[in-house]
Write a structure and sequence with these properties.
Oligomer: heterodimer
Number of strands of chain B: 7
Strand order of the largest sheet of chain A: 2-1-3-4-6-5-10
CATH superfamily of the largest domain in chain A: Thiamin diphosphate (ThDP)-binding fold, Pyr/PP domains
CATH class of the largest domain in chain A: Alpha Beta
Largest interface: A-B, 29 and 31 residues
CATH architecture of chain B: 3-Layer(aba) Sandwich
Number of helices of chain A: 13
Structural class of chain B: alpha/beta
Structural class of chain A: alpha/beta
Distance between the termini of chain B: 33 Å
CATH architecture of the largest domain in chain A: 3-Layer(aba) Sandwich
Shape of chain B: globular
Strand content of chain A: 15-25%
Helix content of chain B: 25-40%
């Protein structure tokens, strides 16, 4: 059955309820945003394992860390920007330095948050989360992948940060597709260049690939759902196969997926690389489609970057 | 399983010895925090010598009472206490702050008996809430204690946690404020006034005890009262003196974060006979 576009936050919220039925150790904490993060489903089903600690992200993190010492698997949830930016020292110390089994799952990543504007659009979470020791960072590309990722982080001990989307994203994976933390999925084979993308940008990359095909350019598309630990093998395979890399993410150009890929490429096997990302600016109000276009996060921007990188490869 | 219940006189007699060991540990390390360590000695003696159930031979014993040290710089105090109560040999105090040591500059679980790594202020109480809440859900009977500094009450996160603990009726939680009136750059209430501190905690829904934090008997009575407080968390505001017991350190902010040299140590030890 073909699914219509749906936000990845829904995949997370639904899967959490399914997991809660068989795993009594799952507890959920909210900074009064369970409606937005979709943990309201869990709240309804398991009120005794759900805690809205009020608008107090620092307290949410610390309490989650404390609960984990009693054998619980706490999911600490809020908007990406409030959790990762506001409560950063708590994430660093209570979760990462203490290496507690806390899962941060945050909605409202990227400019596709839309009309609420820049203060709610998190564009730096990959960067500031991946720099912390012990933290692993995931950004699923669609509803089905969000479900699988939720399952995977529940069943893997230790700290995780997962970003979900407010905006509906096309469902382009299948139930049967594998999902393994730290192992990228090749969405499309190609020989001329590789786009390594995550989240909403995977769909844009696939659209770009279809258009480029008509121009005789065969694009490989890799879904790098795990930004840390980054799949070095998948990056190296792509460099060897195509000799040119374009990264694409709904995030600042500094410090995110593009930087993570560039670190690998530069250290192991240098090749031309271009980055599609937000270029050192804050977002603003608008529809998700308007904002993706305005900030250069559309298939056309990927096409432009691919042409540039292919030209550099042959230079 | 163990509940040390030492004679109060014996406990009080240990205080000068703890202070000497704190200063000796600091002198060897060459850096660290004497002021807020010396102020908390009787609090720790009342906790480990009377109030808490624990087993130093089995630091991970599930039913143990937990002490979360939120004022994570008070490592000389914490490590001297833990070594005296059997968690590790006193000899190890000489490694404090040295490369490769289990005794890190700020409290770390590498040291047996430490529950939570801290060092950045305003973290301990939310964590303690989580432990206490988890214990309630699991039906565990242990108590959770959390030691805070007075200056730490300037951190907003302390008040987020204070609100949560009362809201969730965490009567298995007891915070202790080492109210030594001095922080790094001067008198606490001149830098940012905490008063009326007891009223603040009361208005946040906590049961408040105010005690002389250098009087073991008063501390012990407050800890004994905890079992009678139901439906709300308790805070013990322990009035103390920063640098207690050493004339040239008492009430001095410049002894918040520096170690004594050999001469200063000798003078201090002479005063702490």
């Amino acid at each position: 059955m073909e699914l219509k576009p749906i936000p990845t936050r829904d995949g997370f919220g639904e899967e959490l309820v399914a997991l809660g039925k068989t795993n009594p150790d799952i507890v959920v904490l909210s900074g009064d945003l369970e409606d937005a993060t979709r943990t309201e489903h869990f709240k309804k089903e398991f009120p005794e394992r759900f805690f809205n600690l009020g608008i107090a992200e620092q307290d949410v993190i610390g309490t989650a860390a404390g609960l984990s010492t009693q054998g619980f698997i706490p999911f600490a949830t809020s908007f990406a920007v409030f959790m990762t930016n506001r409560a950063y020292d708590m994430i660093r110390l209570d979760i990462c330095y203490n290496n507690t089994n806390v899962k941060l799952v945050c909605s409202h990543g990227g400019v596709t948050v839309g009309e609420d504007g820049a203060s709610a659009q998190c564009l730096e979470d990959f960067a500031i989360m991946r720099v912390l020791p012990n933290m692993r960072v995931i950004c699923p590309m669609d509803y089905l992948e969000a479900k699988k990722a939720t399952r995977a982080i529940t069943n893997t001990t230790g700290p995780f940060y997962m970003r979900t989307s407010r905006a509906p994203l096309p469902v382009l994976t299948k139930e049967s597709d594998p999902f393994e933390i730290g192992k990228a999925n090749v969405m499309r084979k190609g020989t001329d260049a590789t786009v390594i993308a995550c989240g909403v940008m995977v769909a844009e990359a696939l659209a770009a690939a279809e258009k480029l095909k008509t121009e005789g350019i065969e694009l490989k598309v890799v879904n790098m759902h795990t930004i840390k630990p980054i799949d070095v093998r998948a990056i190296m395979d792509s460099v060897k196969e195509t000799g040119a890399i374009v990264t694409a993410e709904e995030h600042q150009i500094y410090g995110g997926l593009g930087s993570a890929v560039a670190e690998v490429v530069a250290q192991h096997y240098p090749c031309p690389l271009e980055m599609v990302a937000v270029k050192d600016s804050f977002g603003e109000s608008g529809t998700p489609a308007q904002l993706l276009a305005h900030y250069g996060l559309k298939d056309v921007n990927i096409i432009e970057a691919v042409k540039k990188v292919v030209k550099r490869k042959h230079a | 399983m163990l509940k040390q219940s030492l004679d109060l006189k014996k406990l009080a007699a240990l205080a000068p010895q703890f202070r000497r060991e704190i200063l000796e540990t600091l002198e060897i390390a060459g850096s660290g925090h004497p002021g807020g360590s010396l102020s908390g000695v009787e609090i720790m003696l009342a906790l480990y010598g009377h109030a808490m159930r624990y087993d130093p031979k089995n630091p991970g014993w599930e039913e143990r009472d937990r002490l979360i040290v939120s004022k994570g710089h008070a490592t000389p105090l914490v490590y001297v206490t833990l070594s005296n109560f059997g968690y590790f040999p006193k000899e190890e105090l000489k490694t404090f702050r040295k490369f490769g040591s289990r005794l890190q500059g700020h409290v770390h679980t590498k040291a047996p008996g430490v529950e939570f790594n801290t060092g950045s202020l305003g973290h301990g109480l939310s964590f303690a809430n989580g432990v206490a809440l988890g214990a309630k859900i699991r039906g565990k009977n242990f108590k959770v204690y959390c030691l805070l500094g007075d200056g730490e009450n300037q951190e907003g996160s302390v008040w987020e946690a204070a609100m949560s603990a009362a809201h969730h009726k965490l009567d298995n939680l007891c915070a202790i404020i080492d109210y030594n009136k001095v922080q790094e750059n001067g008198p606490t209430n001149e830098i940012k006034n905490l008063e009326p501190l007891a009223k603040k905690w009361e208005s946040f829904g906590w049961h408040v005890f105010e005690v002389d934090g250098h009087n073991i008997k008063e501390l012990v009575s407050a800890f004994d009262e905890l079992k009678n407080i139901q439906g709300k968390p308790t805070v013990i505001i322990a009035h103390t003196v920063k640098g207690k017991g050493v004339s040239f350190m008492e009430g001095k902010s410049n002894w918040h974060g520096k170690a004594p040299n050999k001469e200063q140590l000798a003078q201090a030890l002479a005063e702490l006979k």
